[in-house]
């Protein structure tokens, strides 16, 4: 029984083993057959294609002659990239040169346009800018033979004749030592109408009456400056003078000043305020400037009072001072001159000025340090009244008024209104009173200090970009188109340069030009949709911080660039910092003006959207033939 029981179990095991083997054989056979047929299919396809292709190729080659075969060039160029820009030699200028007759063109003081305006109060000599459809769309040429000006301090005494080809003043002022022609250059002996023996000696005479060397006087204004010799020789006393004169019959007087490397601009005392803030200057000066100080209810002395700081000085030489000695040479009667001096004295008293001294040809008045007494004596001096409604710092096409600009309030009679300024050079980095008093919203003492340090860093970086800026003496006249707190100029204070600090009238509604002056620097207001009151080729270097973003949608970029081209000297440079998109458009425009430019990274690295455009204006001048026509 046991043996019979084992037989079915063994049969089942054998059956199971045979079933497994059969399944494995089937799988193996299927795999072999699939592989075989796959390989046969590949072989048949390859052979058929090769034979058919070869046959077709042979038939084509046998039927077509070789001479008719065409080969196709493969194009490996990347079509997703813009084409390369044209080379410098093939790049066409977008803005052609102007006619050589425009080589000294001053758009807002154009002589022909001025004749349309009223001559009363010299209104016709004020700014009268062209309408939009009158704007030139060409580049002002330098005169034939133009040379890079003499370096400072040699430039104080010499200028190239080819740069300002005018001899009128050498004849008209021959006996006053203004200017002489010596071969291919002008020489400036330093004389003036009231100081024929030289500005240095004249300034020494002033220094004997008020101190010019202790740092208390840093900024000055010279009204009717001639060729600005007074301002030129004040620089050795660390005094910056803003000199101005109209474009009048004294041909190119301001142009000569700028060519020498002296601070100056075209301007006139007429019916509108001077483009400076209130309480800007430590000293004002008039040397036979022919301004009618005693007329129009003292209007012009009232304007001088507005721009003078508390405790500052007004210096007058020339008619009518010392008329007893000079009346015959002035071709005026003694009664006339005596009457004029009396009117000036009366106006000065009504402004609460104190006459300090009159010695020989000099008379000096001093403005009070506050208006405590002045407000009280309005009961005696009814005119001029105190101005309470006007903004004393608003000075862009602002009409003159016959009212006295009030000084900031004080707590006692001995206090200086608006705070006493530090002496120079400490004044440069001391906290300006306009900031410490909180009169400028959002600008704190911390902001001021950080801004000063920031511009030291930026200027140091600029000098690695523009080697001419780093080269001592290469540049002299600098322009900052959007100065803010004057940090750019302050960072260059140890270099032999001066900076015209412009605060645009559109500058975010914060008027900071008063801060610039409280630091001992100089500047003016300007709307960059209009031309500046200066001659062509005034500046060696122009700096602009976000200026094109500021004027976006206000006026055309090309008009601002053309104005920059007008006032920049050949072979001089610009540095503009702005958004990268703005700079790309700007560089394209400058490429069409014969400027060589490149865009470089922000001083903090490539990840900043703000970039820096550095460009150099190429040298080009009017042709000799057109110059002589």
TrEMBL record:
Say if the entry is tagged with keyword Transferase: yes
Which InterPro entries does the protein's record reference?
Put_SAM_MeTrfase, SAM-dependent_MTases_sf
**Which BP terms from GO are recorded?**
methylation
- Membrane-related topology note: Single-pass type II membrane protein
Question: What are its GO cellular component terms?
Answer: cytoplasm; endoplasmic reticulum membrane; endosome; trans-Golgi network
Q: Where are the transmembrane segments?
A: 21-43
Where it sits in the cell: the answer is:
Endoplasmic reticulum membrane; Membrane
In short, the EC number is 2.1.1.-
**What GO MF annotations does this protein's record show?**
methyltransferase activity
- Which keywords fit this entry according to its UniProt record? Glycoprotein, Membrane, Methyltransferase, Signal-anchor, Transferase, Transmembrane, Transmembrane helix
Family per record: Belongs to the methyltransferase superfamily.
This protein is called: Methyltransferase
């Amino acid at each position: 029984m046991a043996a019979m029981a084992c037989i079915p179990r063994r049969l089942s095991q054998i059956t199971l083993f045979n079933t497994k083997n059969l399944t494995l054989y089937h799988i193996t056979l299927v795999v072999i057959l699939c592989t075989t047929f796959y390989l046969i299919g590949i072989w048949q396809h390859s052979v058929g294609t090769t034979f058919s292709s070869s046959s077709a190729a042979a038939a084509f080659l046998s039927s077509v002659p070789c001479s008719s075969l065409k080969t196709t060039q493969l194009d490996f160029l990347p079509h997703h990239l813009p084409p390369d820009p044209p080379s410098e030699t093939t790049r066409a200028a977008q803005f052609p040169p102007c006619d050589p007759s425009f080589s000294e063109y001053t758009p807002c003081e154009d002589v022909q346009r001025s004749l349309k305006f009223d001559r009363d109060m010299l209104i016709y000599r004020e700014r009268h800018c062209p309408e939009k459809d009158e704007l030139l769309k060409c580049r002002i040429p330098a005169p034939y033979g133009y040379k890079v000006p003499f370096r400072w301090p040699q430039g104080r005494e010499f200028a190239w004749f080819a740069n300002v080809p005018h001899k009128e003043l050498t004849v008209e002022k021959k006996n006053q030592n203004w200017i002489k022609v010596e071969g291919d250059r002008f020489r400036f002996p330093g004389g003036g109408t009231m100081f024929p023996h030289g500005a240095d000696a004249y300034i020494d005479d002033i220094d004997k009456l008020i101190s010019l060397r202790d740092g208390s006087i840093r900024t000055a204004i010279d009204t009717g400056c001639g060729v600005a010799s007074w301002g030129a020789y004040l620089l050795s006393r660390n005094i910056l003078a803003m000199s101005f004169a109209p474009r009048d019959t004294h041909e190119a007087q301001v142009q000569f000043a700028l060519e020498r490397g002296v601070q100056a601009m075209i301007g006139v005392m007429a019916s509108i305020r001077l483009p400076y803030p209130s309480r800007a200057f430590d000293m004002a000066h008039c040397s036979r400037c022919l301004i009618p100080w005693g007329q129009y209810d003292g209007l012009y002395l009232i304007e001088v009072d507005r721009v003078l700081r508390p405790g500052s000085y007004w210096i007058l030489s020339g008619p009518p001072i010392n008329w007893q000695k000079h009346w015959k040479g002035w071709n005026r009667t003694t009664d006339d001159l005596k009457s004029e001096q009396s009117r000036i004295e009366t106006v000065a008293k009504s402004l609460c000025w104190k006459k300090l001294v009159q010695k020989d040809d000099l008379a000096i008045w001093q403005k009070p340090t506050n208006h405590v007494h002045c407000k009280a004596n309005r009961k005696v001096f009814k005119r001029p009244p105190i101005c309470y409604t006007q903004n004393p710092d608003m000075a862009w096409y602002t009409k003159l008024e016959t009212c006295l600009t009030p000084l900031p309030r004080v707590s006692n009679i001995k206090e200086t209104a608006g705070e006493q300024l530090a002496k120079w050079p400490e004044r440069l980095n001391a906290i300006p009173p306009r900031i410490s008093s909180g009169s400028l919203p959002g600008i704190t003492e911390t902001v001021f200090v950080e801004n000063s340090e920031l511009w030291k860093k930026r200027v140091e970086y600029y000098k690695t970009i523009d080697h001419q800026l780093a080269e001592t003496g290469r540049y002299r006249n600098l322009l900052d188109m959007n100065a803010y707190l004057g940090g750019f100029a302050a960072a260059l204070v140890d270099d032999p340069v001066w900076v015209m600090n412009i605060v645009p009238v559109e500058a975010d509604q914060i008027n900071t030009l008063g801060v610039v002056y409280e630091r001992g620097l100089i500047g003016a207001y300007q709307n960059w949709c209009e031309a500046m009151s200066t001659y062509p080729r005034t500046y060696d270097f122009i700096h602009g911080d976000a200026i094109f973003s500021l004027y976006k949608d206000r006026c055309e970029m090309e008009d601002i660039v053309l104005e920059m081209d007008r006032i920049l000297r050949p072979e001089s440079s610009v540095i503009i910092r702005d958004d990268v998109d703005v700079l790309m458009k700007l560089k394209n425009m400058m490429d069409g003006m014969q400027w060589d430019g490149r865009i470089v990274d922000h001083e903090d690295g490539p990840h900043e959207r703000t970039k820096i455009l550095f460009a150099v204006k190429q040298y080009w001048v009017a042709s000799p033939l057109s110059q002589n026509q």
